[in-house]
From TrEMBL:
This is Glutamine--fructose-6-phosphate aminotransferase [isomerizing]. It is found in: Cytoplasm. The chain holds residues 242 to 609 of 609 of the full protein. The keyword Kinase does not apply. Keywords: Aminotransferase, Cytoplasm, Glutamine amidotransferase, Repeat, Transferase. The keyword S-adenosyl-L-methionine does not apply.
Length: 368
């Protein structure tokens, strides 16, 4: 039963553990014979995608962080601009639309007032079409958009979004490939992405198998007032999402920074009282990140580095390394999301907060 906690203590924990099956469900019928099956978005979608020269993505909260990851993917693989903006900003400002842009909303509920208002505003702004990446088939956003890509995460009860986020990332990757195929993406690139997606449920499961170790690690955070999260590249939005999760359910002040920006301010905050969590990329930015880790360590900071086994970062004074097994670079954001969700969950449990229903927050913000 979708609204039953089963053997889990909280809906949030249940939803975190549902992610391997949610990802598989979201991929179902959309990858056929190792190819992304674009037709699931409708024949007219292909015609629109052929013309697309830019994307404008609008969302709030966790959905906004999914959009930020998509920006890295789109600009790397499609080589077209991908603009991302928070709905409450977009709806109230004068915007300039790049010709032949596709307008995309991302929303778990499909009812967030600011995102809906941005969608309505966009209708008069000359976009090619609107598309929503949404988890609620019967929602206003689905009704109001030209195209829909459903995320199939199932009912999400915990206010802090978890499985809807990974389902959004998977959907955005499918969408990116669909647009790419309409614009002549190379087969080898599609294969590389499909390969990563097909292995993702298993990779997420391996990350979930580390839950006990994360539970232990969470003790180091429960008494702290602040936590800093660092990332680079496509893992920077994952650091932002990790900080949001920790704030939402444990009420610990958390901030995320792009690691290269450390020297422009947050270094001043470093001391042993503020843990720094690093979401390390398994790519060309790793070496850069290692020097950011050193910047924090040498100033007496206390680091928790989530890194690929092959990253070759060792436990040392001030550095606790947590190994994450992620073979595929493009889907690494989804894999690293799992320990971040578990960490905030276990910290909140120690603090005894109302995990599924955090104070002052709503699952769906349908009024301004
Ligand atoms: C609220 C929820 C968040 C969610 C955000 C956007 O703030 O508490 O978890 O990410 O709304 O919601 P949406 O339904 O549009 O994704």
């Amino acid at each position: 039963d979708a609204v039953d906690k089963g053997n889990y203590r909280h809906f949030m924990l249940k939803e975190i553990f549902e992610q391997p099956s949610v990802v598989a469900e979201t991929l179902e019928g959309r990858i056929v014979d190792h190819q992304v099956y674009v037709e699931t978005l409708g024949e007219n979608a292909t015609k629109i995608f052929e013309q697309v020269d830019a994307l404008q993505i609008i969302a709030c909260g966790t959905s906004y962080h999914a959009a930020l990851v998509a920006k890295y993917w789109v600009e790397q693989y499609l080589k077209i601009p991908c603009l991302v903006e928070i709905a409450s900003e977009y709806r109230y400002r004068d915007t300039a639309v790049i010709p032949n842009s596709l307008f995309i909303t991302i929303s778990q509920s499909g009812e967030t007032a600011d995102t809906l208002a941005a969608l309505n505003k966009a209708k008069d702004e000359g976009y090619l079409a609107s598309l929503t990446v949404c988890n609620s088939p019967a929602s206003s956003m689905v009704r109001e958009s030209d195209f829909t890509l459903l995320t199939r995460a199932g009912a999400e009860i915990g206010v802090a979004s978890t499985k809807a986020f990974t389902a959004q990332l998977v959907s955005l990757l499918l969408l990116m490939v669909s647009i790419g195929k309409a614009k002549g993406m190379e087969k080898a690139v599609e294969q590389e992405i499909v390969d990563a997606l097909e292995h993702l449920p298993h990779e997420i499961q391996k990350a979930l198998d580390q839950a006990e170790a994360i539970d232990k690690l969470s003790e180091a955070f429960a008494e702290k007032q602040h936590t800093l999260f660092l990332g680079r590249g496509q893992q920077y939005p994952i650091a932002m999402e990790a900080a949001l999760k920790l704030k939402e359910i444990s009420y610990i002040h958390a901030e995320a920074y792009a690691a290269g920006e450390l020297k422009h301010g947050p270094l001043a905050l470093i001391d042993k009282e503020m843990p720094t969590v690093v979401v390390a990329p398994n790519d060309n930015l790793l070496e850069k990140l290692k020097s950011n880790v050193e910047e924090v360590r040498s100033r007496g900071g206390n680091l928790f580095v989530f890194a690929d086994k092959s990253a070759n970062i060792q436990d040392s004074n001030g550095i606790t390394v947590f190994p994450v097994d992620s073979q595929y670079r493009i889907t690494a954001p989804m894999v690293y999301t799992i320990p971040m969700q578990l960490l905030s969950y276990y910290v909140a449990v120690i603090k005894g907060t109302d995990v599924d229903q955090p104070r002052n927050l709503a699952k769906s913000v349908t009024v301004e």
